[in-house]
Amino acid sequence: MADRPPDLSSKNPDWWRQAVIYQVYPRSFADADGDGLGDLRGLTQRLSHLATLGVDALWLSPFYPSELADGGYDVIDPRGVDERLGTLDDFDALVAEAHRLGLKVVVDIVPNHTSHLHRWFQEALRAGPGSAARERYVFRPGRGTRGELPPTDWQSVFGGSAWHRVADGEWYLHLFAPEQPDLNWDDEEVRADFRATLRFWSDRGVDGFRVDVAHGLAKDLTEPLRDLGALGATGEEALRHLPPGSHPYWDRDEVHEIYRDWRKIFDTYHPPRMAVAEAWVPGDRRARYARPDELGQAFNFEYLQAGWDAAELRAIISGELATARSAGASATWVLSNHDVVRHASRLMLPPGTDPEAWLLTHGTAPAVDPAAGLRRARAATLLMLALPGSAYLYQGEELGLPEVADLPTQVLQDPIWEQTGHTRKGRDGCRVPLPWTTTGPSYGFGPGAGWLPQPASFAAYAVEAQSGTEGSTLELYRTALRLRRKLLDGETLTWTPDAPDGVLDFTRTEAWRSVTNLGTEPVPLPAGEVLLSSTPLPGDGVLPPDTTVWLA
Fold first, then answer.
1. CB burial class (10 A; 0-12, 13-18, 19+) of residue 479?
2. Which residues belong to any copy of the Glycosyl hydrolase family 13 catalytic domain (predicted)?
3. What contacts 48, CB < 8 A, 6 or more positions away?
């Protein structure tokens, strides 16, 4: 099969089904103007890195006007660009350059909430109780003799009550930070405005959307609002105990009406705009978001959360393939993103370790061996890239970056740190700016220091240090993505019968077999031509632990 670029043209509306999509967290990617924040011009200047890497698309995390109360997910204007990151002209130039390089562009959209600085919310504060402006959000009187208690016991995902009281005594709902008031999707003005947002970005050439908190838009706001009590006031626990679709604000059946409406918009474009749901729900429920008449694809977080265990991973892989097949979608795979500990560190934590507790020790208890973590991360990556479906990469994983677990608490930006009373360190450790060069005040990220400090160890991980270096993690990714493009054929796999314990062994096609040793001892290396190995093989006919090999 000849090496060929992916068909990303209008002739292939299903380009996303087995695409490799690279997530860019723009504030940490490249800083062109020297203010310490990554920006759109910096990203545009570095797009050749993505093209050389061999990905099919980039997913751009929020770049909208924001006060950064939640890393950009507190959106002031969903149809604008934060002036610190650039202008709409800069965005258009980014899309044009991406398309010139053969890259699709997917943008993050945040429909569950806005910033408290959004013009609508400021209008709601001025308008007062009972106003139409407040109907766009979820305002309620408090409980207690003087309304001094929150309307329900619901808790924010970030910690503390999910309700905040305003000066006139009413409370508003915020499932995340207080600076992120939840929208009321029962309000037709909210729905119409978001349709306008989808068309705005689609008209500017955006090829798809990643939908933040896709399972949270629809809410049961009938009175009296329900407490969750023993079911778990944070809400996530209650999903396991309530009948499907009946939770007051997570994964309600009505949410699918919204996405069927969006699909009508997506399908007016050629090719149709793709979408992927961030929906933290079980697989059988997740399939609903991925149906062809809705978003089309949904993130599989069971895979991201799995330990380094062959039996667990095989069950998750088989389940996700079945889930995607039932929805008429393709599977999704992800190992790292902007919300979790990077997999070069996470996969080395002993089973049962709480990553949050580990971060509070600055990564010292237990200590993680960076070399061992990188070896396992490389094996995990080759395994993921061999699976049918779309692979989502997170910026910096192609460099083998570990979590920066020892960030001083005084530099932390994530609202989780303050909102939980310093009991959860948050997500800043995976958002530290990327190293491009081996020297400089921010290792090439920008002309000055970045918004989060980089450890001295980042110099060895820099693109400059790895590019063209045989055996480097960057070159492993480049080779793997080039081979994957040549070998792709179909969306199924066949498990090899009688594989040794601790080994994941499957065939994609007659030309492609993937074998991963997740055990602690070497196993016999199957016969076949070695196309690629996550680490050098010893040459004695065995596959070492924490190693993946692709065979012809």
1. middle
2. 23-431
3. 101
| Rounded CA separation 242/284 (Å) | 15
pLDDT at 67: 95
- Its sign, for the CA torsion 149, 155, 157, 158, is positive
Which residues of the chain register pLDDT less than 50? 1-10
User: In whole angstroms, what separates CA 397 from the centre of its chain?
Assistant: 13
Separation of alpha carbons 140 and 172, rounded Å: 6
What is the rounded distance in angstroms from the CA atom of residue 231 to the CA atom of residue 240? 9
Instruction: Write out pLDDT tens, residues 300-356.
Output: 989 999 999 999 999 999 999 999 999 999 999 999 999 999 999 999 999 999 999
Three-class SS state of 510: coil
Task: Calculate helix-pair angle for 255-266, 188-203, nearest 10 degrees.
Answer: 30
Coil, strand or helix at 149: strand
Q: Give every CB contact of residue 46 below 8 A, 6+ residues apart in sequence.
A: 29, 30, 436
Q: CA–CA separation, 66 vs 110, rounded Å?
A: 12
Q: What is the pLDDT of residue 11?
A: 61
3-state secondary structure of 437: coil
Distance CA 250, CA 521 (A): 43
Please enumerate in sequence order all residues whose Cβ is within 8 A of that of 379, keeping only pairs 6 or more positions apart, or say none. Answer: 516, 517, 518, 534, 535, 546, 547, 548
pTM above threshold 0.90: yes
Closest CA to 379 of 276, 269, 533: 533
Cα distance between residue 90 and residue 31, in whole Å: 13
Q: What is the largest CA-CA distance in the chain?
A: 78
Ordered strands of the 163-165 beta sheet = 139-140, 171-173, 163-165
Task: Give the whole-angstrom CA distance, residue 502 versus residue 256.
Answer: 39
Q: In terms of C-beta density within 10 A (0-12 exposed, 13-18 middle, 19 or more buried), how is residue 372 classed?
A: middle
Contacts of 291 (CB under 8 A, 6+ apart): 327, 328, 329
Q: Read off the DSSP letter of residue 356.
A: H
DSSP for residue 16: G
Tokens coding 502? 């601790």
**CA gap 376, 470 in Å, rounded:** 18
Residue with token string 């479906």 = 389
* d(C-alpha 448, C-alpha 68), whole Å: 20
Per-position b or e across 508-542, b if 16+ CB within 10 A of its CB: beeebbbbbbbbeeebebeeeeebbbbbeeeeeee
* CA atoms in the 13 A half-sphere facing the CB of 449: 7
Q: Rg of the Cα trace of the chain?
A: 23
* Amino acid at residue number 251: D
| Token pair belonging to 463 | 């693109």
Nearest in space to 350 (alpha carbons), one of 372, 371, 334: 372
Q: pLDDT of 437-450, one tens digit each? A: 999 999 999 999 99
Helix (H) or strand (E) holding 282: none
